[in-house]
Amino acid sequence: MLKRLFAILIAALLAGCASVDPQVYSQQPALDLQRYFAGNLIGHGVVMSRAGEVQRRFVVTIKGSWRDGVGTLEEDFVWSDGKKARRVWTLRPAGAPGKWTGTAADVVGAATGTVSGNALNWTYTFALKTDAGRTFHIAFDDWMFLIDEQVLLNRAVMSYFGVRVGEIFISFRKLT
Fold first, then answer.
1. Whole-model pTM above 0.70?
2. What pLDDT, on a 0 to 100 scale, did the predictor assign at position 29?
3. What is the architecture of the domain spanning 23-174?
4. Are 103 and 112 in contact (CB under 8 A)?
């Protein structure tokens, strides 16, 4: 009996680690990263604890540009506590259709992404620096869904050593 209970517990834990395959998304409009992330965008978001409590709010402005298929996204964040931050992403096609890589100064290695239909799934490790001077490597499972030609919704689940520590929700809107 104890062995059976243990096997069920392990199976449940492993099922909780499973990720959705981006290929299941075929909804329209199709997300074209080069088209959507060209020009100026604004995003409004929240960072939530693992219990669902809003920890911080932010507004991010993005200036996207593309040259020879390589994109640059300049993100400027203004946090609810008045702090400001900047991140610059470089996005590149990764060979296979719908596959992308992304790099930024505070991303460990490269983000890998798959676009399918109206969805993009990014996975990457973020080097989170604290006010105390420590750095934590937080894993992101980041999903973006194109709602229409102007609006993109983003949900990112954050984990540390496989334990979910929070989520980020952002609504993006094209300005140009």
1. yes
2. 85
3. Beta Barrel (2.40)
4. no
